[in-house]
Structures are given as structure tokens and as C-alpha cells.
């Protein structure tokens, strides 16, 4: 018997970052959109205790010990229900690693849902969301999917209406960026400046609700983008290549270094992807649509 759960990647269509808090995190107004690039997590009973395996082009960059976010999720659920985490978790990884698309968070949410089903623990949605929030700021959204506003450090979610399909192109970079390093760089760049409270932009919420790509394109913002570009200046060339190819908007995805390009339709997304592939400014190029469903047993 085994359980497989499919979990989407995310792009942040607004990421407003407040001042650093005493606990080291930043308050956010974080508008998440789940997109159709997926990791799959398969949970199978194991007689050898907790085991993690991973396949996919980036598998070599994924830790297979208890630091893996999927392993941490299984251990957290097992501890809560007073049982052994005697499970083999196999990750089929398609979400770029350390790319700013919440790949590790997706695996954590997927492992939770898969172990809950395999073990019959029957955790409520709220219990699962609470464990997700302990595992990482992006993990609750990976569970929920669709579109949502994340406040606090991004873990307090309000689900959002989306009135249509958005077409995206994602370009990965040759190396990853560390999320804490990007937040630290933001703090360094912002030193001495007054930082306003982060608030959700009504124009972003309206554009999502209407499914209006042109309106979303003028409204998208990412406060982490200057920090990501400061640590990874070559991304400027990728953004320029996507814009020149006809993207409605070009931005760094979350903490980067994956870059995200909003297209007017599927044909335009495919054309932009072709130009980016030929541009020599990025490693791999993918197209995906959003919104996508959250963690789902398949
Ligand atoms: C950049 C985003 O992906 C946008 O959705 C998230 O804010 C990052 O979420 P995440 O990877 O789940 O981050 P966590 O695992 O919770 O935190 C990793 C590190 O990122 C920084 N961090 C994260 C979230 C936040 N609101 N403020 C922060 O300063 C902190 O240094 C923290 O130690
Ligand atoms: N299941 C996992 N998949 C990928 N990386 C993992 C996993 N578990 C732990 N890690 C570690 O976490 C680091 C960040 O990986 P991840 O792919 O989650 O970054 P990210 O997509 O940029 O995250 P986010 O967008 O949430 O900030 C990796 O370099 C890796 O060392």
C-alpha cells in the first residue's frame, strides 16, 4: 500500500516585505499563485525507519537525511500522534531546487498529506496547517494551493478568488540562491531607510479576481527582487530577454533565482519560452499555468 500526493510550485505576484522582526523573520504581504509545475511524494510503509529517496534532474541537490523538509514533516506528524515515522518517502522532483518556487515546501506539504493518509491519523485541515506553519513560511500555501494572501511571515493565509487562467514562463538559473541570504541582502540594501508596513495591493487582488493578465502585469511587485539581482546580477539579462520576447511582465520569482514571465496566452508563453531557450541567459525554461490545486492525493 502506498499514497502519492501531487503538490504545485508557486510564484509570488506581490511580495511586500516589512522591516526585520525581533525573531529574524519579516512581516509580509505575500500574494501567492500556485502554478502547474509539480513534485510528487509517495509514502510507503518502511521496515527500516524513515527513508528518503529522490529522482529528477535536480535530485543531486536534495538532502536525503532528516534535514529534508519532507522528512521533517513526517517526523512532526509522527510525534504529534505518538507513533514511529516508519515510512519511505520518494520524491519525484520537477520543481527547481533553491529556485524561489517553494519546492522544499511543496515536499513538506505533500509528505504531511501522504503520511496522514497512509497512517490513518486523520489530522484536521487546521492541524495540518499548524504543522505546515512550523515547518516553514511557504508550507501552508503549498497545502492550500490556488491563490492566497499570506500575512505574518507568510503563513497566515486568506484564500483569494481567481477569475481566469494565467500563462507563465519560468527560467531557471545555473545555480541556486539561499532564501535567508536574499532577506539579509534586502536588510543590507534597506539600512537607514524607513520601511512601510507591508499591505496587499488591491490592484493585484482585482487583477487575479478578474483573471486579467494585462492588469496583473502592471501590478506585480517583488520587494526581494533588488536583493536577488544584487546577489545574482546576470538575472537582469534573463529578465530583459523575456521582456524583449513579448512578456507582459518579467520578475524574479520570490527569493529567486528563477525568473517568471507573464504571457498573454498559451501561444505567447510558448514563443517566449523558445526565445529564452535560445538566449543563452538561463539554464532551463518551462511553461506553466496558474492557479493550480494544492496538495492532492493522486
Ligand atoms: C521568499 C518566499 O519564498 C516568498 O514566498 C518566502 O518568504 C520564504 O519562505 P520559506 O522558504 O518557507 O522560508 P522559511 O523556511 O520560513 O525561512 C527561511 C529564512 O528566510 C527568512 N524569512 C523567511 C520568511 C519571512 N517572512 N521572513 C524572513 O526573513 C528568514 O531568514 C528565515 O530564517
Ligand atoms: N525536499 C526538499 N527539496 C529541495 N530542497 C530541500 C528539500 N528539503 C530540504 N532542502 C534544502 O532546502 C534548500 C532550499 O530548497 P527549496 O527548493 O525549498 O528552495 P526554494 O524553492 O528557493 O524555497 P522558497 O521558494 O520556499 O524560499 C535546498 O538547497 C536544500 O538544501
UniProtKB/TrEMBL annotation:
NCBIfam families: ispE, PRK03188.1
Record's protein name: 4-diphosphocytidyl-2-C-methyl-D-erythritol kinase
Tree of life domain: Bacteria
Domain GHMP kinase C-terminal: 205-279
GO biological process, one term: isopentenyl diphosphate biosynthetic process, methylerythritol 4-phosphate pathway
Domain GHMP kinase N-terminal: 68-146
Catalysed transformations (reactions): 4-CDP-2-C-methyl-D-erythritol + ATP = 4-CDP-2-C-methyl-D-erythritol 2-phosphate + ADP + H(+)
Keywords annotated in UniProt: ATP-binding, Isoprene biosynthesis, Kinase, Nucleotide-binding, Transferase
Residues annotated as binding ATP: 96-106
EC number(s) from the headed UniProt entry: 2.7.1.148
EC class name: transferase
Pathway participation: Isoprenoid biosynthesis; isopentenyl diphosphate biosynthesis via DXP pathway; isopentenyl diphosphate from 1-deoxy-D-xylulose 5-phosphate: step 3/6
Similarity remark: Belongs to the GHMP kinase family. IspE subfamily.
GO MF annotation list: 4-(cytidine 5'-diphospho)-2-C-methyl-D-erythritol kinase activity; ATP binding
Protein purpose: Catalyzes the phosphorylation of the position 2 hydroxy group of 4-diphosphocytidyl-2C-methyl-D-erythritol.
Catalytic residue list: 10, 138
Species per Swiss-Prot/TrEMBL record: Streptomyces griseicoloratus
Amino acid at each position: 500500500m502506498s499514497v502519492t500526493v501531487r503538490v504545485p510550485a508557486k510564484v509570488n505576484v506581490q511580495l511586500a516585505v516589512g522591516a526585520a522582526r525581533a525573531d529574524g523573520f519579516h512581516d509580509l504581504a505575500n500574494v501567492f499563485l500556485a502554478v502547474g509545475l509539480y513534485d510528487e511524494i509517495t509514502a510507503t510503509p518502511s521496515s527500516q525507519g524513515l527513508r528518503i529517496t529522490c529522482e529528477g534532474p535536480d535530485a543531486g541537490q536534495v538532502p536525503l537525511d532528516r534535514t529534508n523538509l519532507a522528512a521533517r514533516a513526517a517526523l512532526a506528524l509522527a510525534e504529534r500522534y505518538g507513533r514511529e515515522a516508519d515510512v519511505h518517502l520518494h520524491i519525484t522532483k520537477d520543481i527547481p531546487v533553491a529556485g524561489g518556487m517553494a519546492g522544499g515546501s511543496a515536499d513538506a506539504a505533500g509528505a504531511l498529506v501522504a503520511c496522514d493518509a497512509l497512517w490513518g491519523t486523520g489530522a484536521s485541515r487546521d492541524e495540518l496547517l499548524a504543522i505546515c506553519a512550523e515547518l516553514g513560511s511557504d508550507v501552508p500555501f503549498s497545502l492550500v494551493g490556488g491563490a492566497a494572501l499570506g500575512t505574518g511571515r507568510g503563513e497566515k493565509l486568506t484564500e483569494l478568488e481567481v477569475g481566469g487562467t494565467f500563462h507563465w514562463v519560468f527560467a531557471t538559473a545555473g545555480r541556486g540562491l539561499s532564501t535567508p541570504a536574499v532577506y539579509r541582502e534586502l536588510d543590507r540594501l534597506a539600512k537607514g531607510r524607513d520601511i512601510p508596513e507591508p499591505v496587499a495591493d488591491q490592484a493585484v487582488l482585482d487583477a487575479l479576481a478578474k483573471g486579467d493578465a494585462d492588469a496583473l502585469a502592471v501590478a506585480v511587485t517583488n520587494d526581494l527582487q533588488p536583493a536577488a539581482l544584487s546577489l545574482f546580477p546576470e538575472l537582469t539579462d534573463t529578465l530583459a530577454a523575456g521582456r524583449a520576447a513579448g512578456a507582459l511582465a518579467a520578475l524574479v520569482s520570490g527569493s529567486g533565482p528563477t525568473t517568471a514571465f507573464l504571457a498573454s496566452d498559451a501561444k505567447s508563453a510558448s514563443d517566449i519560452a523558445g526565445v529564452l531557450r535560445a538566449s543563452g541567459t538561463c539554464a532551463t525554461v518551462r511553461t506553466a499555468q496558474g492557479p493550480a490545486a494544492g496538495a492532492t492525493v493522486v
